[in-house]
Amino acid sequence: MYKKILALALAFALVFSMSACSSSKVETSEKQYDYDLSEYVTVGEYKGIEVERVDPEEVTDEDVQSEITSELESKISWDEVDRPAENGDRVNIDYEGKVDGKPFDGGNAEGYDLTLGDGAFIEGFEEGLVGASKGDTKVLNLTFPDPYVNNEELSGKAVVFTVKVNSVSEENVPELNDEYVKSLKEDYKTVEEYKKAVREDLEEQAEESARQAMMSTAWQKVMDN
To answer: CA-based, 20 to 30 A from 132: which of 54, 86, 174, 208?
Structure first.
């Protein structure tokens, strides 16, 4: 079956190429030139091209679970909570930083969403907001790392950040259950139906990857000829 597919695809590609090459026209701003590419291109041997079969990769239970986990994580939402912030929470903050009592470029923002523990800010900033609640204002006495690649002029300098916490939100990852799968666009009724469909999709992708690999090898042989 694969050889038939390859033969048909190659035949179509070559017929298309030759039909395009046999009579072509180039337009420039001044003149039109008719030319026949067959004067310059010689078609090599392409009949009977054979390639080694590429078997699709086996889809494992781990592959299925990884695909489902990735899908669930793509649907993460953030729900505001009325409690002190913890690592992994997202806080919305207004902040202003000062060095030697003066603001500096890039040292302030309003309505900034920061996930605690991501390491987006200098050491001590995110840690200093753990335990803060909505409405709290924190004063963080910190020191820029040395060197500080984002702004070498601030390397090793003491900085004071005044941070107001506007809200605290926690991550909400959908739970894999029948209710969740029923909410998807596809007509699933149970988790098992969903897992079966995911496996079938992955198997189709593996089949297509194997087919493309063989097509690429066959085409390269034609081009080499």
So the answer is: 174
